[in-house]
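Database export, one record per block. Field names are fixed; values are copied verbatim from the stored entry.
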Amino acid sequence: MLVGVEDDLLPIGQFAALGRLSVKQLRHYDELGLLEPAYVDPDSGYRYYRASQARVALSIGLLRSLDVPLVVIGRVLSGEAGALGSVRDSLEEELVRRRRTLASLERVMAEGLPAARVRVVSEPARRVAVAGEVADGPEGVGRATSAAVARVLSVAAGLSEVRLVGLFPVDLGEVVEVEVALLLEPGVWEPGGGVRAEVLPGGVFASATHVGPYDQIVLTAHAVLAWCAERRLRVRGPIREVYVSDPGVTPADELVTEVMVCLEEER
């Protein structure tokens, strides 16, 4: 028995079995300050724990099984009120994203891989008001788009018709820049509130009509890009989503959106 070491101390191996954690996990949690040993032998470096610390060990295991990040577990153990709220919100967002993915998968299962009818159209340059947002990855695109729509609509007063165009990168990375353009009518317009005036370039576009929820537009975009690739047509971003329907009065399954991608002219 070690001199000066209390009788109720357990070596790390025994404590690991008691707390249902591995020795490796206990060492890692010690390094993070989540569960420090009651005693560390200064000569050997062996770690010893009290049986009363098993509740903390088991609590860490429980929270990890619920996908709670270690940094949040530390806040929970310190008694911070509401520490788990952000984890709950994150899991709810992931659940929503998974449900959207499942709906798209079911549509592919029912209708096959997307093969929308693609046509070539010419579009003139248009004067627009633009609001931009940055999304943290593809899962944040919907939220960023809604925020951009809200900002650009704040300058829509006085327009006889509201026509919106979403602008999205062809390839979605870890950071996605989203823009929403409001088509302007002839006349003077003063930018403000983070909304800027621009000219939306014209050109020749491959276009297809998407009917259904916005979160399934990726299927129609795939069909357009596949059509272009089969014909060796080079495209340049961004992908445009021209919102034909009013989502405030149109059921999600009946929403009409024109998906367009600009074709590079041969030189």
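Remark 1: The chain has a mean pLDDT of 90.
Remark 2: The CA atoms of residues 3 and 53 lie 22 Å apart.
End of record.
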